[in-house]
Amino acid sequence: MSSAHPTRRTFVTGTAALAAAAALTPAAAGAAHAESAAGQPADGGRPLTVPGLQQWTPGRGSYRFGADSRIVLDRADRARLAPTAALFADDLHTLTGRRVPVVTGHARSGDLYLRLHDDKNPATRDEGYTLASGAVMNLSAARVTGVFRGTRTLLQLLHQSPVVAGGTAVDWPLKPYRGLMVDNGRKYFTPQWLKATVRNMAYMQLNTLHLHLTDSEGFRIESSSHPEVVSKDGFLTKREIKDLIAFAQQHHIEIIPEIDVPGHMTQVLSVHPELGLPGSKTTLDLSKDAVYAFVRDLLEEYLPLFPGRYWMLGGDEADSVKNNASYIAYAKAHYLPAGGDPAKVTGNDCVFGFLNWANDIVRRHGKTMRMWNDGLNGITTAVVKPSNTINVDFWTSRGADPTWLVDQGFTVMNGGSPPTYYAAGGGWDYRKDTPWTYENWQVDAFLNWGPDGETPSPYRTVTGAANQGTSMHIWCDVGDPETEEHVSEYTTRLTHIVAQAGWGSPKPAPDYPSFVRALQQVGDAPGGRATADLAMGRPVRATSGPNPAAAVDDDPSTGWSSGPATGGRTALTVDLGSQVALDRAAVQWGARFATAYRLEVSRDGRRWYGLAATGAGKGGTTPYRKATTPQDLIDFDPRAVGIEEFERLTGVGRYVRLVVETASDAQGVDVMSLRLFGAPRR
């Protein structure tokens, strides 16, 4: 979508213990780790997972993963569960370094037993599962998808410890649509990044990957019908698409493709200006028959390529045509329904006729069409009524209202902007306040903008099956400034928040700082994108000032105040615990900030090498304050609260220090957060 769309790398603390336990006998592993069952709070509450478990009943004893642990399948279920079991075994190998055999037969102590069972409850039937933790870990579900979801929970638990507290979990999602959208139109994301992202999505129980394949700045999918429109600076081939679809299916994730029409067509119109709306650089002219032939070519080419249930047509942010004479004439000639009053036809009716035309093609291919809600602007007074078989992704009040749509029989999805948006490279004001979102936002709450289009009104609420769920959106308003890794690191937490909202279970932590610590504990998916802040919670020392640990607690409401510089400089040093290849860093300043500073890295804490430096530090115009209202959420701007970032770093070391050379205030600086990203050096 356009710029009008307001859009880490882990040290796995549990993995080392788990790998060590895998070399022990089950009894020895239990003795070594009985005191630290995975995710089990001291008060006997539910084990820690993200999203949280729906239900947990504590039991006696515990499950212990060890050197003799196996994945066991019932003979009757083997054919259906073998692929899931094989993938689970591969993930356990990545997590532990040990090959876990998959066998058929009876489970014994230490085994992971996977099976299918009858379940007529519609809430738990499709994706729900039951985990019974004891001498054997019993995972059962009515569907293969449910078993797969349960294996993701087990990976999170075993990431934390080889010991899982005894008890029974019954878990299921609140919403059937829990997604991630990637703007692959304006920024080319590689197949490797997309696959790693699929792993991360599955780990947090998301089930839908929406690929926004075209936008004004790019058409990034191979085309045989119109090869001339494909971007030359990067695109996905059909073979890569098929491979990605197969990989996503393995992880029980459905891919929804989007070829965005009639707006956001600058790339196409650069080749076919004759298809454009006069006076527009972005919009196809829906009063031209040639446009319908072009769109039909694309639909007929791509619909068979994607086996999923949905096709996303887009429909957003096209140029206004309400009073366009050509559109009005075309609507009267082609779309006027029996009994319709031609005097009331507007250009919007031509757009709605086009939507119905495209919807008929999509439905003939056995799929359901989706679109953005602003493409339905003017629907309440339309002569040509769009079919309510179209599913509507709500993102803005500049279009059809979600409650009105539901009253008319439409199905909606909550992709509100904000809080589910991140915009890479341009829309800084759309990197919203994640603490507010975690602590306040609910999946049934649709953001409602007031009459001025600027001030938020109270949320509109859409509950029940008419609200399919929600999705996190990664937009690339400017594609180049941010690397794929940067995008992963800076969207992970918000994606987890959206995943938690869609799952609809009790939250795993009462507030955002606790939630961040929970994310560190459950870690990243085996083989997925590493996204963790390496500095968080690590030992830290400072040359002056109290409480330097507040700079690495990843809570921007707390921080380290240095006091006056000591010996001409102030420094903050973090011990990462082992050698790391660093590639990104971010500093968030408080009211007092460094005007010149540098980051240095060291392998031994004695010899230091430059990592990054600036003599133009600007801090922020206002110190961070926690958002408490929807208006606070909208007003949040990382630039204003002093976030300064460094990309494409190349240093290797265990220790990193922030050295302040000059400051805005003689009394020192306030470092609210120092975040470091990279990968363990092996």
Automatic annotation (TrEMBL):
Active site per UniProt: 317
SUPFAM superfamilies found in the cross-reference section: (Trans)glycosidases (SSF51445), beta-N-acetylhexosaminidase-like domain (SSF55545), Galactose-binding domain-like (SSF49785)
Annotated F5/8 type C domain residues: 516-679
Protein name, entry field: F5/8 type C domain-containing protein
Family: Belongs to the glycosyl hydrolase 20 family.
Top-rank lineage group of the source organism: Bacteria
Source taxonomy: Bacteria, Bacillati, Actinomycetota, Actinomycetes, Kitasatosporales
InterPro entries: Beta_hexosaminidase_sua/sub, FA58C, Galactose-bd-like_sf, GH, GH20_Enzymes, Glyco_hydro_20_cat, Hex-like_dom2, HEX_bac_N
